[in-house]
Design goal:
There is one protein chain. Helices cover 41% and strands 21% of the residues. By secondary structure, the chain is α+β, with helices and mostly antiparallel strands. The chain folds into three domains: 9-204, no CATH class; 209-364, TerB-like, CATH 1.10.3680; 368-422. A hairpin with a 2-residue loop joins strand 10 and strand 11. 35% of the residues are buried.
């Protein structure tokens, strides 16, 4: 195809169906001039080419229709290309779409993707690759062709609201592809042939990842306070309960580095000390803490909180009835799925002494005191089926199962004799 006039739209039709410091300023400069790099030769790559056929891109609203008819169509921004394929040699080509948030032009930030298929090889930054086959120097698209896509409902910018996106389209060698890092290609790589960009404004309703990081830190401080309400349910903080909370804080901050690490550590330590004093003074209001956590709309942190509460309860090896009642209230206030709560609860039962089970039988078995006896018995039958199946497991799992079956038997006798509503 060398030197010929080629319309690539036909070949591409199948594609439609089927932060770092000093580098940032350089990136802005490089992107602004990158469309002049052409095939990276010193000579003008467009010399003798009609300006109409110089490589160019545009973006427009479009819709992606998955092959699976059960999946709803996905709105997207279609990235289109027209003009010369600026490359120095015959190559198997790929168009690569990346994104940067340039709302603050002095500090461009990456845009993250929700799914592996839309991410870079080594980061969660957005990347969309489209193979277009082998072409020769001089080939070009005489019509606008589909060359990339941005699925704006499947990405997360640094902040919510009106954001300015820089949509980058790169032409690279599929057999010698340059590495990409948070939207940044290696501009010195000889497999990078050409690139250009266009800005696009879009309003994001959901929280950006920087906002989520801040809210997650708030949520974890609330987790500590809520767990303290469990530990202090019996009027005192047991040493083992305090140690569990300290271990949780230590493990949590290991996921952060530098200044962020120190800030989170200070926040969680303050939350532990403050909530302990408030609990002693009777000023720790559990409902307010749960409401505040709910307002952050971070589902993973709700389950993380409940898991911490159960770990605190089991720290001393005793199923304290007052602590179990508080945990049940927490699960309800946080609107935790009952099946997921049961999984978390079951996971800590092996840490509890069998002798202490009887005092908190209902809470251990997940029984709500407000249920009728008939509903309690129905729930106990379900629990019996679950734990009976686990008796076939090796020790210590089977030992735990037999303990639970003993509790279930006692509970069934209790509610059978209660009012006869079995």
């Amino acid at each position: 195809m060398g030197g010929s006039l080629v319309t690539l739209a036909i070949g591409l039709g199948l594609l439609v169906a089927s932060e770092g410091g000093s580098a940032i300023g350089w990136l802005v400069t490089a992107l602004a001039a990158f469309n002049l790099l052409g095939n990276l030769a010193e000579d003008d790559p467009y010399d003798g080419i009609d300006p109409e056929h110089h490589p160019q891109i545009r973006v427009s609203e479009d819709t992606f229709y998955p092959d699976d008819e059960e999946i709803d169509p996905i709105p997207m921004l279609g990235v289109e290309f027209k003009g010369l394929l600026a490359m120095p040699k015959s190559s198997d080509l790929v168009f690569v779409t990346t994104l940067l948030d340039v709302t603050d032009p002095d500090e461009p930030r990456p845009v993250l993707a929700h799914y592996d298929a839309l991410q870079e090889a080594n980061t969660t930054a957005y990347q969309r690759r489209m193979e277009i086959g082998t072409h020769d120097p001089g080939d070009y698209a005489t019509e606008w062709i589909h060359s990339g896509a941005v699925f704006h409902e499947l990405i997360t910018p640094p902040l919510s609201g009106r954001r300015k996106l820089l949509i980058n389209l790169f032409l690279v060698d599929n057999d010698n592809s340059p590495p990409f890092n948070f939207g940044y290609p290696d501009f010195e790589h000889d497999g990078l042939f050409w690139g250009d960009s266009v800005e696009y404004d879009y309003t994001f309703e959901d929280k950006g990842y920087l906002e989520t990081i801040e809210d997650t830190s708030k949520a974890r401080a609330l987790s500590v306070k809520i767990a303290m309400s469990v530990a202090m349910a019996d009027g005192s903080l047991d040493q083992t309960e305090g140690e569990i909370m300290k271990e949780w804080v230590t493990q949590t901050i290991t996921n952060f580095d530098g200044e962020q690490d120190e800030e989170l550590k200070a926040s969680l330590n303050e939350a532990m000390q403050q909530s302990y004093q408030e609990a002693l003074d009777g000023r720790l209001v559990l409902s307010d803490l749960c409401d505040e956590l709910n307002s952050l709309e971070l589902e993973p942190q709700k389950y993380e909180t409940l898991k911490l509460c159960y770990d605190v309860m089991a720290a001393d090896g005793v199923a304290d009835a007052s602590e179990l009642v508080v945990i049940k209230q927490i699960a309800g206030s946080l609107q935790i799925d009952p099946d997921e709560e049961a999984k978390i609860r079951d996971g800590v039962l092996g840490k509890i002494n069998a002798e202490s089970f009887e005092d908190g039988t209902d809470a251990i078995l997940g029984i709500d005191p407000s249920w009728t006896n008939k509903k309690k018995m129905r729930h106990l039958r379900k629990e019996f089926t679950k734990w009976n199946a686990r008796t076939a497991l090796p020790a210590p799992e089977c030992d735990e199962a037999y303990r639970m079956l003993d509790l279930i038997a006692k509970a069934r006798q209790k509610y059978n004799e209660g009012d006869g509503a079995a």
